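Re: the request from the purification team.
They wanted to know what the chain is likely to look like in 3D before they choose a buffer screen. I agreed to run a prediction and write the result into the notebook, where they can find it.
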Amino acid sequence: MRILFVEDDRNLSAAISEQLQKEGYITDCCYDGETALSYALNFEYSYDIILLDRMLPIIDGLTVLKAMRSKQIHTPVLIITGLGELDDKIHGLDCGADDYLVKPFHIKELLARIRALTRRPAEIKEKEILTAYNLMLDSEYRRLTYKGSSVLLTQKEADLITVFMEHPEKTHTRNQLLWKVWGGSTEVEDGNVDNYIHFLRKRLRALGCKAVIKTVYGAGYRLEESDDKKAL
């Protein structure tokens, strides 16, 4: 597995890349956004995941990320940053990141998140188009559309909405969602499910659709159609 690690702190980059290589990952390192962009946009490298710092010289990390997504490069991206406020996380994920890790962190957590992002559970079946409640999901490009309006999803958002759209009005427990989207990994916190439910609700509101992800108290979550556009 090949990783692109973009971090301007060379000492931190060297320490983490050494740990990644011990785990068997081939790791390419760069230290500014301009170089990162040239690496990320070069299809010859075929990275399995990109670890991307937000605060970079020349070109910032989010600009690199948005440029990748505009070129339809869907390599999983894990943002690593010292900016840990909720709005910072939401902005990073909205720009196309698949996960967000705040410094300082333990190397074991980084490795767990890499495993989670590069593991696609067998339960998530590749389908070109899914439809439910006038929503349409293009799985290949992770594009969610409602009556002509579209939003691009991160990989985990696409995996999660796939579960809901495959079984509309079915209530899914948090553990079921954790298993289907994250492969049942004990290294992933239950709170990740709640966070991604929050992100998906925001996407649905942005589209102005009637479909909502409803909290079924004591049971879990389900996708249903409602006249109330507020997230429940």
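For the purification team: The domain at 2-118 is CATH 3.40.50.2300 (Rossmann fold).
Please add any questions underneath this entry.
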